[in-house]
Structures are given as C-alpha cells and as structure tokens.
Design brief:
Strand content: 15-25%
CATH architecture: 3-Layer(aba) Sandwich
Structural class: alpha/beta
Radius of gyration: 16 Å
Shape: globular
Order of helices and strands: HEHHEHHEHEEHE
Number of domains: 1
CATH class: Alpha Beta
Strand order of the largest sheet: 1-6-5-2
CATH topology: Rossmann fold
Largest sheet: 4 strands, parallel
Oligomer: single chain
Number of strands: 6
C-alpha cells in the first residue's frame, strides 16, 4: 500500500513550495498565527478512509496506527535536535460533539506520542465554548467566520513553546483561531501537528 507522504512543503503552513524556498509566498506576505506546520500526509486515499473511520465509525485502532506514525515523526524527523515543544494541546471539540462522538479524535492520535515522546498532553486547558457546524460543510470564508471566538483558554499556561494537534488542516481556520487565543495567553511559539494537510 502506497501512502501519500508529504515532501518538500512550506515550513510554516505546509502548502506547496516554489523552487528554492523554505517559506511559500503566502506565508511571506501574510503568515498564519502558528509558527510551523508538521504534516504526515496529503489528504488522499487510503489515509482519507483511516481518518473517516476513526472520526465517524469509532475505529480507534486507526487512531493508534496514525498516532504511532505521528510519534515516529516527532522523534526522528521533525525534532531531530531533540528540542520538543513543552506540551501538546489536542484541538478541543465542543462538549455536545464530544458527547455525540464519544471521544476526541485528536486525543486518540496523541496517545502513542504520550508513551513514546513523553510530551505532556494538555487536557482541559482550553475549551470550545460555542457549538459550530462542521468545518467540512463550509467554504473558506465560512470556515473562518465559523471559528470566530469559539476557543477559550482555561487558567494560565506556564509554557513558551507548545504544539497543537488537529487530524486534518485544510484552510487553517481552526488552528489559526486556536493559536490566536493561545498567543493572547502568552504562548510564544506554536507548532501545528496534523495527520493530513489538504
């Protein structure tokens, strides 16, 4: 089985690069709120089926498989110098959606990382305070509007460098909105970890 691994992408946003550059023209002109995006795969088969199976069919074993690949990249590819983020925050679901789904897929993806890399996972330090329609049902402008004011940091975060994890990053609206409140709370550097960059 051939997996759609990501190669040679913009260091900051994970989109395709022009020749001889580390940052894409979009990040040079108008950078996102996060500092680095680390993605495993293009959003293509068979990874699409694994993500859908995890999120909507409760196939938690898919989360373990993808999470192990994620942990491997954290250890051996993305942080070769061994300087890891101080903590990692799974993108929170609204309480209604988490109750309906029964779990947060971002947390499932982080479980192997917590055993292998031992980077603390920040649970209950940020919450989604508004229920919103699924991002997948909206266009780019709708996704951005959908994320306005939906996240809230709980208590002080005694870190300078953290990572956040979302299963798929498409327009970046969700992670940008979360990064905005985290930087307002005093976080200096934010890396985004994702299974797929669409």
């Amino acid at each position: 089985m051939i997996l759609p691994w990501i190669e040679d992408r913009c260091f900051q946003c994970g989109l395709a690069l022009g020749e001889g550059s580390v940052y894409c023209s979009q990040c040079q002109d108008s950078p996102p709120k996060f500092d680095r995006l680390c993605a495993l795969f293009e959003y293509q088969p068979p990874v699409i089926q694994l993500i859908i199976g995890l999120k909507f069919e409760k196939r938690l074993a898919y989360g373990r498989i993808l999470g192990e690949l994620l942990a491997d990249h954290i250890l051996y590819k993305w942080y070769k110098n061994g300087v890891y983020p101080e903590a990692v925050l799974p993108v929170p679901l609204h309480a209604q959606r988490q109750r309906a789904r029964g779990f947060n897929q971002a947390v499932e993806l982080l479980m192997p990382q917590s055993r292998v890399c031992k980077i603390p996972i920040l649970l209950n330090r940020c919450k989604r305070i508004q229920p919103t329609p699924p991002q997948s049902s909206l266009n780019k402008q709708g996704r951005k509007r959908n994320m306005k004011g939906v996240f809230q940091v709980i208590g002080p975060l005694p870190y300078e460098h953290i990572a956040i994890l979302d299963d798929v990053v498409t327009t970046g609206s969700t992670v940008n909105a979360l990064c905005e409140v985290l930087k307002e709370a005093g976080i200096i550097r934010i890396d985004v970890w994702t299974i797929c960059r669409a």
